[in-house]
Design a protein that fits this description.
- This protein has a six-stranded mixed beta sheet with strand order 1-2-3-4-6-9, with helices on both faces. Strands 5-7-8 form a three-stranded mixed beta sheet.
- Strand 1 and strand 2 form a beta hairpin.
- By secondary structure, it is α/β, with parallel strands linked by helices.
- The protein is 46% helix and 15% strand.
- The chain has two domains: 198 residues, 2-enoyl-CoA Hydratase, Chain A, domain 1 (Alpha-Beta Complex), CATH 3.90.226.10; 48 residues, Lyase 2-enoyl-coa Hydratase, Chain  A, domain 2 (Orthogonal Bundle).
- The chain starts with 5 loop residues before the first strand and ends in a 9-residue tail after the last helix.
C-alpha cells in the first residue's frame, strides 16, 4: 500500500492513515484526496482492519484545500469550484460515514477548512492542545463544504456554526471541547499514545456493533423518534445474531473479559 501523499499501514486490527504532505501543512491536493479515497476503499475491503486512525504528519493536521498556484486550477478561466467537491470531497466524506468500522482522529496544529471536516467526520476526535479549528472558506470568497453545513450545526448548534463559518475565526482546542466538537484535549506529547490506545480498544471490540452504531447515529440525525426506535429494533436484531454478542454474554456469565472477533 504505497502512496505519495498519505501513509497507510494496517496491523493488529488498526488501519493507520497519515496525511503526509508536511511541507505543505498537509494541504488537500487532488492527488492526496484521490489517494485518501483509494485508501478508504482498501480499508473497507480489508477484513483485518477493525478501526481507522487518522492523523497528520508535521506541524499540523491539515491547512485545508490546496489553493497554491502550482497545486490547483483555482482562479483560472472557467474554473468550476464545485467540480472538486463532486469528484473528490463528497465521495471522500460519504465513504468515511459509510465505513463499517469506527474512525478515530488525532489532530494537532492547524485543523482548517475541509481538513476540519475530515477530522470531525471521525467518531472520536482527540485534539492536542496546539490544535485550532478554522472554517476558512470565506477568506477565499467561498462557502463551507465537505459536509460543513450538515455536520457543524448538528455538533455545536446553528448560532455557533454560522458564526464560525462566517467570521472565519480560530477556535482553540479547549473551546472545541467545550462546544462538543471533540471528545477530549490532551497535551501534544500525549496525543499519539492517547489515540493509539483508543484505536487499540476499538480494534478489540465488537466490530459489527460499532458499524451498526455508526449507521444508526447517521440515520437518526434525520429521523423521527418512531423511525429511530424502529431502526434500533432492526439493528439490535442484527447485533443479537452476531458471534460477538454470544461471546459477550458468555464472558459476562463467566466473569471474564470478552474476546471479540468482529463477527
Amino acid at each position: 500500500m504505497s502512496y505519495e501523499n498519505i501513509r497507510l499501514h494496517v496491523a493488529d486490527g488498526v488501519a493507520r492513515l497519515t496525511l503526509a504532505r508536511p511541507a505543505a501543512l498537509n494541504a488537500l491536493s487532488r492527488a492526496l484526496l484521490g489517494e485518501f479515497i483509494d485508501a478508504l476503499d482498501v480499508i473497507r475491503g480489508n477484513d483485518a482492519a477493525r478501526v481507522l486512525l487518522i492523523t497528520g504528519a508535521g506541524r499540523g493536521f491539515s491547512s485545508g484545500a490546496d489553493l497554491s498556484s502550482g497545486g490547483s486550477p483555482a482562479g483560472s478561466a472557467g474554473f468550476d469550484a464545485g467540480q472538486v467537491l463532486e469528484e473528490y470531497y463528497n465521495p471522500l466524506i460519504e465513504r468515511m460515514f459509510d465505513l463499517p468500522i469506527p474512525i478515530v482522529a488525532g489532530v494537532h496544529g492547524a485543523v482548517a477548512g475541509a481538513g476540519c471536516m475530515i477530522a470531525l467526520s471521525a467518531d472520536i476526535v482527540v485534539a492536542a492542545r496546539s490544535a485550532f479549528f478554522l472554517q476558512a472558506f470565506v477568506n477565499a470568497g467561498l462557502v463551507p463544504d465537505a459536509g460543513s453545513m450538515w455536520l457543524l450545526p448538528r455538533l455545536i448548534g446553528r448560532a455557533r456554526a454560522q458564526a464560525m463559518m462566517m467570521l472565519a475565526e480560530r477556535l482553540s482546542a479547549e473551546k472545541a471541547a467545550e462546544w462538543g466538537m471533540v471528545y477530549e484535549v490532551v497535551e501534544d506529547d500525549a496525543l499519539a499514545d492517547r489515540v493509539a490506545a483508543i484505536a487499540d480498544r476499538l480494534a478489540r471490540g465488537p466490530t459489527r456493533a460499532h458499524a451498526l452504531i455508526r449507521r444508526g447515529v447517521r440515520a437518526a440525525l434525520d429521523s423521527t423518534l418512531s423511525e429511530t426506535l424502529a431502526m434500533e429494533r432492526a439493528a439490535q436484531r442484527e447485533a443479537g445474531a452476531s458471534e460477538d454478542f454470544r461471546e459477550g454474554i458468555a464472558a459476562f456469565r463467566e466473569k471474564r473479559r470478552p474476546q471479540f472477533t468482529g463477527r
